[in-house]
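Q: what sequence does this backbone want?
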């Protein structure tokens, strides 16, 4: 193997391309976005990820990595395109289909085709393999087809692409071996060979487990509010048990995996996936629950000014995909009583369909800060920074604010029974 063609240069495809290029392979990256292609070829990147800018710049300058709009012949093709969901919560595999069709004309016998995109079970067998047949190749003998889902944490992608265990599911046993050998050239962790459908389900269940666990924590938040207990303390103490690991509650579940992948299972087995569906309903209810708490906190204010701090689904990244913070902001904005400002030091204006404020603009005259992302910048907030606010109150939905100052009131999402309506002093009213 000498040449790798990666289709899709987003949060997974670009780091994967850079890792293979750094390992000495000639890598061609493909993306339909001309701006993305131009940015990469200039030695720059269009996403935020620790260490990625330096690595991409290095391999581009060395001539080991280049980007373009269409595939070309290679030894290995890796498809890393999005798999969103339709409005009816069924999987949209159109990008995978289009990517497969885009590489098919460049295939030769003996090529390896790997789909890294998260896909519903049996997509490799029922969708990808038939496309390969349409182009005159036998997926059991001519071309090796496999699914190798990514399993990385944003902010640590470059490290985890190398160190994490990889699951490689082949349409055939030989395909699994061939694809696994591709990853063994860059991966230090274990590379496990299995069937394609098993690999598909393994990735979906990894994320579904986390989604269900978070739903349990979020349900606890609502119970805790009703009975007057601190859910954060309950979780901390329960997790002292050696076989208990309850995840953390929050304003909802976002990202390209947890908020989407469970639906891929539901689509294939609706009657049998009742727990998964319940977890999805609970987590999907959290953005509105957060808005309800904001309404309760500001009930006695005539025109509350709300500073939304954080729009990403995860702290210290720029990833806004499926972020519950976006839904919260837009629901607040629809309420004409609120003056809502959105601030996120990691998000660019081009990423969201509404204006962004600076920190100073967001805080000016604000009655309430709503923390929706656990960025380090927010963890370091001080009472002095909040001086421009009318009332110094923070609603912390990520349990990341540890500001101990009598001038500031901090309400935690797990301890809402103590919430009192914000009072604006007469001297503070306009």
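A:
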């Amino acid at each position: 193997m000498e040449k790798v063609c990666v289709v899709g240069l987003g949060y997974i495809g670009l780091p994967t391309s850079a890792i293979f290029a750094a390992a000495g392979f000639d890598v061609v990256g493909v993306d339909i976005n001309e701006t993305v292609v131009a940015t990469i070829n200039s030695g720059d990147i269009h996403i935020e990820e620790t260490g990625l800018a330096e690595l991409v710049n290095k391999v581009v300058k060395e001539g080991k990595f280049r980007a373009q709009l269409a595939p070309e012949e290679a030894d290995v093709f890796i498809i890393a395109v999005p798999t969103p969901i339709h409005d009816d919560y069924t999987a949209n595999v159109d990008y995978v289909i289009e990517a497969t069709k885009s590489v098919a004309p460049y295939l030769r016998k003996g090529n390896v085709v790997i789909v890294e995109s998260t896909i519903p079970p049996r997509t490799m067998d029922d969708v990808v393999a038939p496309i390969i047949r349409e182009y005159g190749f036998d997926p059991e003998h001519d071309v090796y087809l496999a699914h190798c889902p990514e399993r990385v944490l944003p902010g640590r992608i470059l490290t985890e692409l190398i160190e994490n265990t990889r699951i490689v599911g082949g349409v055939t046993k030989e395909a699994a071996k061939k694809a696994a050998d591709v990853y063994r050239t860059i991966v230090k962790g274990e590379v496990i060979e299995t069937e394609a459908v098993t690999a598909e389900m393994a990735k979906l269940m990894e994320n579904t487990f986390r989604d269900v666990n978070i739903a349990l924590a979020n349900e606890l938040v609502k119970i805790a509010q009703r009975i007057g207990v601190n859910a954060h303390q309950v979780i901390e103490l329960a997790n002292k048990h050696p076989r208990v690991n309850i995840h953390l509650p929050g304003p909802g579940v976002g990202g390209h995996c947890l908020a989407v992948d469970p639906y891929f299972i539901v689509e294939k087995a609706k009657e049998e996936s009742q727990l998964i569906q319940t977890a999805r309903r609970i987590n999907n209810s959290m953005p509105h629950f957060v808005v309800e708490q904001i309404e309760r906190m500001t009930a006695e204010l005539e025109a509350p000014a709300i500073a939304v701090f954080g729009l990403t689904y995860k702290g210290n990244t720029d990833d806004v995909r499926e972020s519950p913070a976006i839904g919260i902001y837009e629901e607040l904005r629809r309420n004409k009583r609120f003056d809502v400002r959105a601030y996120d030091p990691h998000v660019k204006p081009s990423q969201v369909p509404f204006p962004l404020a600076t920190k100073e603009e967001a805080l000016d005259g604000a009655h309430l800060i709503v923390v929706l992302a656990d960025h380090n910048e927010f963890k370091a907030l001080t009472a002095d920074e909040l001086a421009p606010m009318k009332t110094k109150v923070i609603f912390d939905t990520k349990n990341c604010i540890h500001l101990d100052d009598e001038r500031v009131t901090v309400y935690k999402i797990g301890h809402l029974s103590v919430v009192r309506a914000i009072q604006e002093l007469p001297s503070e009213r306009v």
